[in-house]
Request: fold
Amino acid sequence: MTIAIEFALNGRPWRAEPPAHWTVLELVRDGLGLMGTKDGCGEGVCGACTVLLDMEPVRACLVLAARLAGRSLTTIEGLGGEGPDRLQEAFARAGAVQCGFCTPGMILAATALLARLPAPTAHDVREALAGNLCRCTGYTKIVGAVLAAAEPAA
Reply:
């Protein structure tokens, strides 16, 4: 059985008919072919599948696609438009990317943080990213990248 849902995907109106049991993660990756959202633990623990639902970070592996109806979904592909956005650029400049598996989830969680708190402290950043696990880094460069992106442009 499939369900018809209409929602905004990365700022554009979208209509999909996924199987009723699909999660947002399955819809994004398998249904829409957007591979930036990663399939990590499948249990909502690692944060690799973080997307923004109405600008709030959620675990795509835990949310049924049916919950998208009438809402706005942002994936990593929806940031930046023609080029990288300020967080993506800051991550690259700071060397905050190693294997890159956690990066989309980290950047989306940081996007939500900066939207609600434009000038966070390092503690704020660590708290906002606490649910996103990285096995490659010590998080120092990631926190630094978010803080750098928060600074006003000179």
User: Anything to note?
Assistant: DSSP finds five helices and five strands in the chain. Strands lie at 5-9, 12-16, 50-53, 56-59, 72-74. The CA atoms of residues 98 and 137 lie 7 Å apart. The radius of gyration is 15 Å.
